[in-house]
Amino acid sequence: MSILLHGVLLSGEQKDIFIEGNRIQAISDRLERAADTMIAGQGKAAVPSFVNGHTHAAMTLLRGYADDMPLKEWLETKIWPVEAHMTEEDIYWGTKLACLEMIKSGTTFFNDMYWHWNGTARAVQEMGIRAAISAVFIDLGDAKKTREQIALNEALYAAREKFGTRVTFALGPHAIYTVSEEALRWCAAFARDKGLLIHVHLAETEEEVSRCLETHGVRPARYLEQIGFLGPQVIACHCCWLNEEDIAILKANDVRVVHNPTSNMKLAVGRVFPYRELHARGVITALGTDGCASNNNLDMLETAKLASLLQKFHTGDPVVMPAEEALEMLTAQGARAFGLESGCLEPGRWADIALVDLNTPTLTPNFHLASDLIYAATGSAIDTVICDGKILMQGRRVKGEEEIMAKAREAAFALVRRAAA
Amino acid sequence: MSILLHGVLLSGEQKDIFIEGNRIQAISDRLERAADTMIAGQGKAAVPSFVNGHTHAAMTLLRGYADDMPLKEWLETKIWPVEAHMTEEDIYWGTKLACLEMIKSGTTFFNDMYWHWNGTARAVQEMGIRAAISAVFIDLGDAKKTREQIALNEALYAAREKFGTRVTFALGPHAIYTVSEEALRWCAAFARDKGLLIHVHLAETEEEVSRCLETHGVRPARYLEQIGFLGPQVIACHCCWLNEEDIAILKANDVRVVHNPTSNMKLAVGRVFPYRELHARGVITALGTDGCASNNNLDMLETAKLASLLQKFHTGDPVVMPAEEALEMLTAQGARAFGLESGCLEPGRWADIALVDLNTPTLTPNFHLASDLIYAATGSAIDTVICDGKILMQGRRVKGEEEIMAKAREAAFALVRRAAA
Question: pLDDT (tens digit, 9 = 90+) per residue, B89-126?
């Protein structure tokens, strides 16, 4: 299978992009190649499709179910009771909806942590995008649960290949306050042994830091370093409550961090992600949406705008996180964080590409594509999405979208009814 | 002319809405009326179309032209030099583009302050939406300029009716640091005499407050009260740097305030709009986008999300500005602020209505329309827009949109070339 993108705007110049199999094969001013599919690029700009560094995809089912509540009450009376009733089929439809929403806003990779791993993996496989998927690993210090969780992760790892090459199995120790030291050590060892990513929440709230100091006598980053958990395979999400020493520890261990500005603001976590400090040290940083219960969408362009505005406002400096840097976090930096062979458009890379419709009011007049994408456009400006060399959206139409919305809606309302019964 | 909206979702129930002339004539479970136009409401929710409380519409021409710069350098080296070259024709096309963008995101009224009043008014008249339009009144204490500005505003006022009933002439004294006391007093008197709105920037930056204290010995709100400027006709925009006394003064004078969260964050104004305090006192508050150079779009749903998230994050309280309140600011509160006979859907009101496409991923599953609109959707979820009883958009198509984008693009690039020459 081959695709020719004919005359798309790439870094301000009209180019032809030839895709063969799942990779970009050539980029040039004019390519005279026979292709199975030709896409007219007139009025469209090509960018690497986006990376969503942290989410719980199937939480689309809980979008708008409960908002504007104190965190503890929200979790205990709304989110957790409903999650307890979720089935693998719910997760499957919730993730299909999430994939649909991500494709429609230009995202083709997401890093997930949620329940019923197989439901998520099946949805991702079918929808044509990529994901690193981890099961929520929580043992609360209960040795029996630790053993169960380890067995589950070993089984998922053993069977991981049945969902194809776009689905990556990852480990998902939830956080230092929900996972025992023994389990954290097991995750670290298993990840090193098998070459897996580890997806963890880190320093999201002040309470996490103060509890860690009480329990372990050190702050979270130091604690994780001491038990041999840290390394470039660790994807540390949130990282709001970091001090200078924490940042140095993350850098020294080449940990990758994911900032989730919308969720941090909506849940009022109380501290701004220390972007300038992390960026100055060269820590690889991606952006994420978090789950739809705390965002409530999966639009990476909106996320990037919020990230940039929050930094500018917080630091009092309108120059922090310029548009290009924010766009890099969605593309090249995101790809580096997760070891993806995408994130920039050049021969040899995976054909993971989004085409932006420049005939959109928010992209007019278009002096500067990065600025328009980050500050003006939303995901709805994306016209075409290609992942792994396959066209997933063209003219904003995704195959089966009506059915996915209908089934996810049905699953969500039935779930809430079951939880209330 | 009459329109029947058949079976739309209104506050969670299927309703028929009958529009005759420019007003909602009836709302009921089932209306058996012959209408000139019938719109099938299946899968759509009706909401009052939105109010954009503060913008400089034609700044769409400068979208993405310069960002990520220190404020002073940005204004002096980029924005002002280009603005100096703008013609009425530029303003016309820039405003057409702004109107197109607003229609496409559900907005049918905006409060504008910019150059070449006639260009803005002509665009608004043609595009079918409503606006309160003021000319930028700046005299910098120069008596000759004061006289010129007064003459200009008197002339615009005298000729205001030629642009029809949807265009409202307003006064636009820019700010206390750019307009003389004499001119401010003139604006106040002229507005009272003629029943006009006054559009002013107030307490946007700390420098404005400190300069006012130096010059007048009091803070901006007190200064304006002392010179008899304040009243319910005053639309005070930004209002970030208010203290308790300022808030009491604004309330006592029934001033209407407009919060522009995106612009405040992007320009790093250093202080969060004191929403809780103003809301507790019942000050009428609308939301605005500000101009596209400092936002960089005109999407009121994005603006409302940012407003709510910024309040939650800043106060540490996830309960502040819940979705319903944010939506009210775009609709009922916005209408109250500007004296519009719209803002809620009931018989007798202006037929200014937006239909939301519920078959959109971000509106799925749709447990709660206000939450989904504010936290999940962007303006791209709006399918149909009616203003003054006329259909301006249906199925996301606006008449002439391709030409508007092409002409505005052309005008913007030509303008920048002229400014650089």
Answer: 999 999 999 999 999 999 999 999 999 999 999 999 99
- pLDDT band for position A227 (50/70/90)? very high
- For CATH 3.20.20.140, the residue range(s) in chain A are 50-338
Out of B269, B322, B376, whose CB is closest to A296? B376
Contact list, B317 vs chain A (CB under 8 Å):
70, 268
Check: complex ipTM more than 0.90: yes
Contact B375/A67, CB-based, under 8 Å?
yes
How far does the CA of residue A4 sit from the closest CA of chain B (Å)?
26
Give pLDDT tens digits for B128-148.
999 999 999 999 999 999 999
Q: What is the DSSP letter of B69?
A: S
Q: Identify all chain B residues contacting A71, using CB atoms and an 8 Å cutoff.
A: 318
Q: CA of A276 to nearest chain B CA: how many angstroms apart?
A: 15
CATH topology of domain B2-48+351-401: Urease, subunit C; domain 1 (2.30.40)
Q: Please name every residue paired with B199 in a beta bridge, in sequence order, or none if there are none.
A: B235
Instruction: Give the separation between CA A404 and CA A389, rounded to whole angstroms.
Output: 23
Distance between CA atoms of residues B174 and B134, nearest Å: 10
The pLDDT value recorded for residue B71 is: 87
User: The whole model's pTM is what?
Assistant: 0.98
User: Which of B313, B319, B382, B392 has the most A C-beta neighbours within 10 Å, making it the best mutation to test the interface with A?
Assistant: B313
Architecture field, domain B50-338: Alpha-Beta Barrel (3.20)
For CATH 2.30.40.10, list the domain ranges present in chain B: 2-48+351-401
Measured in residues, chain A has a length of 421
Task: Look at residue A197 and give its three-state secondary structure.
Answer: coil
CA distance A420 to chain B (A): 14
Six-digit token pair at A242? 């970091």
Interface touch B378/A299, C-beta < 8 Å? yes
Residue A298 and residue A56 in contact, taking contact as beta carbons nearer than 8 Å: no
Do B81 and B48 form a contact (C-beta atoms < 8 A)?
no
Query: Amino acid identity of B243?
Result: N
Instruction: Select from A329, A324, A263, A279 the least CA-distant residue to A107.
Output: A329
Residue B248, both tokens: 């009491």
